[in-house]
């Protein structure tokens, strides 16, 4: 029994109006409200103390009060405070309200009878009720590592007392609140490394994220993003008993450590709920139960609230506990978020109630039927409702926007080519933007409203969090994204039947940087469509591996073997973390045989490749007469540029050292245009022959700097420029995350008068306030607000500074024989470009 709780024998009545199962925050809240309403109820708890989940928290842990804007309407007291304070307060509330609670009462069965619900307990007793409220948590069904070594003694799935660990290297697996809180509690006395499979910490509360980023800033811990553990090896010798083998964006890494703490979340008790007769929307083990807006399940009279309903936040559970009792009593009560939703719908169906509008949205879009009512409410709250007119552009081809769209009403056109002829039509109930969501890459086409429309625009971060919890939705989005990449790469002339057949049988494969898609001499297994990332194509020439060319996302590789029927002509490797859609050889050959246009295109590409490769091979086996010197074959140049991150760049600044006169005008112009802090370092950065890649932003297709920005100050403009706005707080996370050292911390100064460079280049000065004298992050923004383009290039008096698209540059390196990169570029058609 908890301290200060009076032990008493609760008489087991034969029948109650309501039985509440679980004494966590939602169950306690329901019991307190039931007591106030003088309802006949019983609160059952399987353990010997209330709030077992919070008791499992770390000693001294601060229990958050999130979301901050959500008011608490229940009489159960709760404010952000230490774990021990929260428990003491609730134990006092149990006594003050004299709650009708029985401990050690584990429920084993619930059955719907004709007039009531019947409940079975582990001790064999039975009770009945008109209504039952399931308020149990999910901590009893923790996910575990399903990898070799996941069961070794050094792997644990719970952290009770962080003070028990001293001077250890500890790997924490999991980027949710539990993992982050465990990692923070262990800092100061241990070396901590967090492995997070996502590319950010979007599942964390804001307060946890702030503490995490501050801890990393001061060097108290580190993390690896987009990283998955592959195995845990036991070491028989050395300081560390185990080694974590992890798949990172840079390839396989081995992390020696003393222990692993895996906080992977928990699965709902689905088998138990299905045994009670509760329905689920999909077959996914992680799917949430079907619930009405009043929390009633598919079993009449059985309500589910709190973590089991998909809402683990304490404030949400407390409010739901209060509301469910009001619903049971038939009292009108609006959910706490209704007023916010009403404002959201002010210009759309404002003559209908919130629940009616939500139901219209659900019926309009089949994908949204996979969500519970509560998930749908949360999705809409975090989204925008758009009402474009006919002809309005939603986004353009090659834009870098990443929001996701649901079509509630209206029709839209999709234009993939540059012409104005629609390639596809989108109608009510469909969705679009899935390629940007799945891969984060540029928009594959332009979307334009054909009729007056109503759209829900959801931020990528919100959708990613949602699909992580609704696996069936993730599968659907992946399948549609695959269909689109097939359509864009090779399917414009395919029938709908062939397109669907290819997409439904295609496989999405992921590759770490440096990993092979296929090897020279392999038998052809199919066609690879590059969905995200980029690859290099190389051959063995003269006893060494020669990089022939580079292929960016949105193109394909592997067609040469399909056309010739011979083994793989070259080796293809991921230049950065890459995803590719594989269409197997048999299915692709069948499509080629039945589609003369595709066959003709592939034949032409095949012949072009043979001609290009012959030219490249000649370059590799003879001295290069150009200014790069004998060492500077195209293969060497491509390899060098890939090493400098060009494979994930969208814009690269180069300096031709054979032309540069060291006047430093490029830096001066940049500084004068950007508040006194230059965004480039001309003398820094690697150099290959006469080509220098100075320290300046590459504007990566998947910007590392955007991943952990607490104020969300880093954005991508529609044309690809990555920039930092005035909300920067100077935390330094972007500087640490950038692998190319192109971000610096500087004080932005006021510039009341035009500088010499602003006068010469015709630039109007911007009002740039001093940020309290403190430093903020600064980086190249590609002069996105200056119509004439980057001032570093315009200020160069000799044309040594050059900003180029990496695809053009790499094609130049693969097929040009000019004397300098600043000369006319001769482009060749590489495999997919």
From TrEMBL:
Listed CDD domains: CAP_ED, DMSOR_beta_like
Taxonomic superkingdom: Bacteria
This protein's UniProt keywords: Iron, Iron-sulfur, Metal-binding
A single cellular component GO annotation: cytosol
Gene3D superfamilies linked to this entry: 3.30.70.20, FAD/NAD(P)-binding domain, Jelly Rolls
Domain 4Fe-4S ferredoxin-type: 651-683, 720-748
Keyword Manganese (UniProt): no
InterPro entries reported in the protein's UniProt record: 4Fe4S_Fe-S-bd, 4Fe4S_Fe_S_CS, cNMP-bd_dom, cNMP-bd_dom_sf, Env_Response_Regulators, FAD/NAD-bd_sf, MethylDNA_cys_MeTrfase_AS, RmlC-like_jellyroll
Domain Cyclic nucleotide-binding: 367-484, 490-609
GO terms classed as biological process: DNA repair
An example Gene Ontology molecular-function term: methylated-DNA-[protein]-cysteine S-methyltransferase activity
PANTHER family cross-referenced by the UniProt entry: CRP FAMILY TRANSCRIPTIONAL REGULATORY PROTEIN, HTH-TYPE TRANSCRIPTIONAL REGULATOR ARCR
Protein name: Cyclic nucleotide-binding protein
The species this protein was found in: Methylotenera versatilis (strain 301)
């Amino acid at each position: 029994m908890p301290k200060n709780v009076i032990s008493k024998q609760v008489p087991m009545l034969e029948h109650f109006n309501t039985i509440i199962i679980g004494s966590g925050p939602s169950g306690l809240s329901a019991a307190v409200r039931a007591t106030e309403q003088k309802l006949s109820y019983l609160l059952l708890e399987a353990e010997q103390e209330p709030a077992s989940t919070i008791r499992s928290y770390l000693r001294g842990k601060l229990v958050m009060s999130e979301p901050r804007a959500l008011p608490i309407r229940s009489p159960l007291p709760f404010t952000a405070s230490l774990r021990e304070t929260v428990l003491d307060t609730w134990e006092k509330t149990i006594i003050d309200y004299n709650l009708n609670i029985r401990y050690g009462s584990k429920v084993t069965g619930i059955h719907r009878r004709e007039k009531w619900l019947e409940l079975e307990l582990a001790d064999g007793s039975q009770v009945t009720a008109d209504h039952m409220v399931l308020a149990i948590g999910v901590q009893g069904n923790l996910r575990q590592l399903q990898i070799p070594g996941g069961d070794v003694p050094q792997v644990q799935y719970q952290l009770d007392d962080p003070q028990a660990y001293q001077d250890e290297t500890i790997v924490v697996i999991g980027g949710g609140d539990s993992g982050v809180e465990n990692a923070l509690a262990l800092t100061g006395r241990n070396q901590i490394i967090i492995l997070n499979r996502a590319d950010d910490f979007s599942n964390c509360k804001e307060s946890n994220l702030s503490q995490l980023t501050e801890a990393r800033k001061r060097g108290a811990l580190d993390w690896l993003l987009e990283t998955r553990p592959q195995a845990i090896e036991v070491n028989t010798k050395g300081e560390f008993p185990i080694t974590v083998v992890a798949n990172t964006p840079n390839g396989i890494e081995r992390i020696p450590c003393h222990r692993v703490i895996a906080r992977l979340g928990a699965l709902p008790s689905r088998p138990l709920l299905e045994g009670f007769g509760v329905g689920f929307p999909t077959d996914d083990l992680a799917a949430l139960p079907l619930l009405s807006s009043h929390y009633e399940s598919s079993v009449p009279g059985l309500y589910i609230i709190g973590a089991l309903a998909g809402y683990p936040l304490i404030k949400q559970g407390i409010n739901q506990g209060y509301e469910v009792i009001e619903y049971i009593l038939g009292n009108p009560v609006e959910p706490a978020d209704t007023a916010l939703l009403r404002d959201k719908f002010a210009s759309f169906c404002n003559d209908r109630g919130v629940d009616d509008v939500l139901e219209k949205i659900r019926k309009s879009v089949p994908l949204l039927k996979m969500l519970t009512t509560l998930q749908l409410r949360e999705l809409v709250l975090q989204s925008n409702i758009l009402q474009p007119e006919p002809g309005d552009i939603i986004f353009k081809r090659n834009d870098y926007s990443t929001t996701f769209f649901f079509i509630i009403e209206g029709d839209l056109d999709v234009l993939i080519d540059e012409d104005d002829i629609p390639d596809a039509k989108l109608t009510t109930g469909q969705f679009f933007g899935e390629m940007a969501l799945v891969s984060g890459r540029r928009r594959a086409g332009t979307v334009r409203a054909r009729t007056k429309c109503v759209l829900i625009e959801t931020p990528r971060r919100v959708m990613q969090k949602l699909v992580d919890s609704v696996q069936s939705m993730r599968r659907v989005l992946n399948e549609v994204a695959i269909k689109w990449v097939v359509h864009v790469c090779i399917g414009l002339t395919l029938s709908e039947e062939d397109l669907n057949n290819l997409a439904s049988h295609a496989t999405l494969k992921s590759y770490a940087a440096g990993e092979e898609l296929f090897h020279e001499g392999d038998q052809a297994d199919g066609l690879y469509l590059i969905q995200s990332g980029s690859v290099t194509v190389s051959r063995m020439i003269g006893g060494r591996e020669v990089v022939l060319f580079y292929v960016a996302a949105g193109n394909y590789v592997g067609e040469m073997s399909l056309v010739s029927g011979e083994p793989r002509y070259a080796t293809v490797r991921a230049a950065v973390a890459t995803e590719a859609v594989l269409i197997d050889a048999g299915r692709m050959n069948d499509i080629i045989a039945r589609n003369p246009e595709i066959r003709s295109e592939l034949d032409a590409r095949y012949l072009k490749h043979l001609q290009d490769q012959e030219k490249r091979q000649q370059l590799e086996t003879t001295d290069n007469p150009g200014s790069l010197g004998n060492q500077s074959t195209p293969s060497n140049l491509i390899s060098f540029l890939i090493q400098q991150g060009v494979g994930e760049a969208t814009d690269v600044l180069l300096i031709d050292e054979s032309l540069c006169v060291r006047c430093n005008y490029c830096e001066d112009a940049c500084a004068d245009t950007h508040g006194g802090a230059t965004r480039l370092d001309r003398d820094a950065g690697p150099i290959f022959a006469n080509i220098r890649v100075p320290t300046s932003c590459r504007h990566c297709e998947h910007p590392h700097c955007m991943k952990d920005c607490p104020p969300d100050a880093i954005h991508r403009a529609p044309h690809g420029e990555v920039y930092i706005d005035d909300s920067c707080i100077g935390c330094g996370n972007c500087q640490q995350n950038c692998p190319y050292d192109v971000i610096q911390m500087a004080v932005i100064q006021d510039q009341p008068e035009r500088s010499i460079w602003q006068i010469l280049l015709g630039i109007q000065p911007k009002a740039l306030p001093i940020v309290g004298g403190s430093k903020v992050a600064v980086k190249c923004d590609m002069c996105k607000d200056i119509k004439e383009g980057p001032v570093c290039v315009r200020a160069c008096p000799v044309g040594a500074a050059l900003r180029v698209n990496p695809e053009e540059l790499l094609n130049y390196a693969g097929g040009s024989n000019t004397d300098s990169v600043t000369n006319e570029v001769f482009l060749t058609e590489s495999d997919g470009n």
